[in-house]
Amino acid sequence: xxxxxxxxxxxxxxxxxxxxxxxxxxxxxxxxxxxxxxxxxxxxxxxxxxxxxxxxxxxxxxxxxxxxxxxxxxxxxxxxxxxxxxxxxxxxxxxxx
Amino acid sequence: xxxxxxxxxxxxxxxxxxxxxxxxxxxxxxxxxxxxxxxxxxxxxxxxxxxxxxxxxxxxxxxxxxxxxxxxxxxxxxxxxxxxxxxxxxxxxxxxxxxxxxxxxxxxxxxxxxxxxx
Lengths: 97, 118
Prior knowledge:
Radius of gyration of chain B: 14 Å
Structural class of chain B: alpha/beta
Oligomer: heterodimer
CATH class of chain B: Alpha Beta
Strand content of chain A: 15-25%
Largest sheet of chain B: 5 strands, parallel
Helix content of chain B: 25-40%
């Protein structure tokens, strides 16, 4: 049923985040990892256009490594253990690199 | 003496590009070349304080940026549009960098004998 969308590239360098948002469906989740966490500032306005029920996460290790924090409401930081739980909770994972 | 312009365009974590570029800048400084060091695109993230790449078992390359001053590299620029796009305008930066716009970047490139971008 549900898919975990994994975005790992900077939204300023590739269109990974846009390609993810084009495919995401209600019940899915999005997690930003590696340089994908640069999307924390972009995701909130983009998500407003999406339907409810899409959870959004950012990997806390990657945020901390880059001196970033989740300022935007609606994006939840999660650690590696939480990432594993998310992978298990969703039927499929899809990487947008 | 030649004018060398360096463009830092990559984020601080996940590749060896920032370190390779900084090594080039410092090496050029030792040979007393005229250096312009410009942070733009995702390179502006290198200037954020409080980076903790140890969380990923990686080294903090940006912590070496204050060495630029010791090497006499004082022409350090940051592209304001890159900061704005990323919601980083007004954020405190690791080292002091002169704000510049795309026109100024273009003229720094035009005046350079050599250009390096990583």
